């Protein structure tokens, strides 16, 4: 939690620099790649957090992993974090960048929970519905949860629409529990 404020400051600075050079969307893709790679690799995360490994070695590893995949602004971030001894903050900075980039572009994150993975056709229909409801497009994250049986749960910002089968079963159960029907014997 103590990394949140400095990470936000770094992310804002990077976004301003990327906007000046007109590569803000490309840097956002880089930051998403970095955050996903670190989150998926326990070894990379442990290496970045290790106080025993030298900062220059950490930078060499980052350049080896992301060298051809990221632009110069992102490589500059690697150098800056090494100089300031804050390489440990790379993942929080990458996540914060994506958040403030989405805010800057009026993009929202819509979480769609389904029993099976979304197809591209369904994703396009959901995107259309989100624009219709909120007036802005959204980045769709699909969460697969077989426990909802069928249907979907859509969450955009602070709004949630639950059209899952499990929710309908729960509503029916509550209705039966609250009814005062007494059968004749």
TrEMBL record:
Coiled-coil zones: none
UniProt entry keywords in alphabetical sequence: ATP synthesis, Cell membrane, CF(1), Hydrogen ion transport, Ion transport, Membrane, Transport
Protein location: Cell membrane; Membrane
Free-text function comment from the UniProt entry: This protein is part of the stalk that links CF(0) to CF(1). It either transmits conformational changes from CF(0) to CF(1) or is implicated in proton conduction.
Annotated membrane topology: Peripheral membrane protein
Keyword Ion transport: yes
SUPFAM superfamilies, alphabetized: N-terminal domain of the delta subunit of the F1F0-ATP synthase
Protein's UniProt name: ATP synthase subunit delta
Superkingdom as given in the UniProt entry: Bacteria
Family under the similarity heading: Belongs to the ATPase delta chain family.
Keyword rRNA-binding: no
InterPro entries: ATP_synth_OSCP/delta_N_sf, ATPase_OSCP/dsu
